[in-house]
Amino acid sequence: VDELIQIGRKVLREKFLVADIGLSGVNFAVAETGTLCLVENEGNGRLSTTAPPVHIAITGIEKIVEKLDHVPPLLSLLTRSATGQNISTYFNMISGPRKADEKDGPTEVHLVLLDNGRTQAYADEQLRKTLQCIRCGACMNHCPVYTRIGGHAYGTTYPGPIGKIISPHMLGLEATKTMATASSLCGACGEVCPVKIPIPDLLMRLREESFSAPHANPTMVGQGAGYSALMTSVWKGWAAVYRSPALYGVVTWLGSRFSWLMPSKQGPWTSVRVPLKPAPKRLRDMLKERQ
Fold first, then answer.
1. What is the pTM of this model?
2. Which structural domains are found in the chain, ordered by start?
């Protein structure tokens, strides 16, 4: 690891030093002082905002806080929920370009504020809670769907549970109408969110809107409104197994004993993933062994 870090430093540092412009995001933007706060552990953010002569910061309007006093509690929530740290390795506070008597820092600082559907979300009393997000990633770390399929499968800038409720405002409901259904509604995301965004409730709201919109009819097939005969039979069989402890026990026993019969390729799933196989021991068997 140390060797890779040294190689990266040798190759990349020179690029920072000769760059004309440095781009960065913003974790918190303070309206009272104009201060831009950047939270990071790598150090590349600090290089991007100090070495080039021009710094351009880009942020959504929801990252603006009223006063400097509002930053510490939000920073504490962010670092603890994201990485379990009291504070990140680097915490940068930028309040403008360098002054005449200062030796480092950019000579120009520009801030780009993005709306991109955010005022639309804020106009709705329920959906505006989406904008409370501090991008800690706690909802993604606890989401069974996200941990299984990964972030790139969402095809949007914001993945995971928070992405499902914020992307429709940015990209439109037509382009993201299936995202709200990619959830088990287990509620884990809402429980761990440090700023108490009711993500499951907002997912249900967006599901209702996507299915009641004029474009919704074609997308309803296969999502509860028009299963094929084969899919209906499969789900009825699934329900029968899960309603009967005895039948469930038989099926899981067979699955664990004959897992070697599982095909090595399982459709598109195994093109980028390891094939799924039943556990060698059932949960009920492991519990019996511990008693």
1. 0.73
2. 2-114 (3.40.50.10420), 118-220 (1.10.1060.10), 229-290 (no CATH)
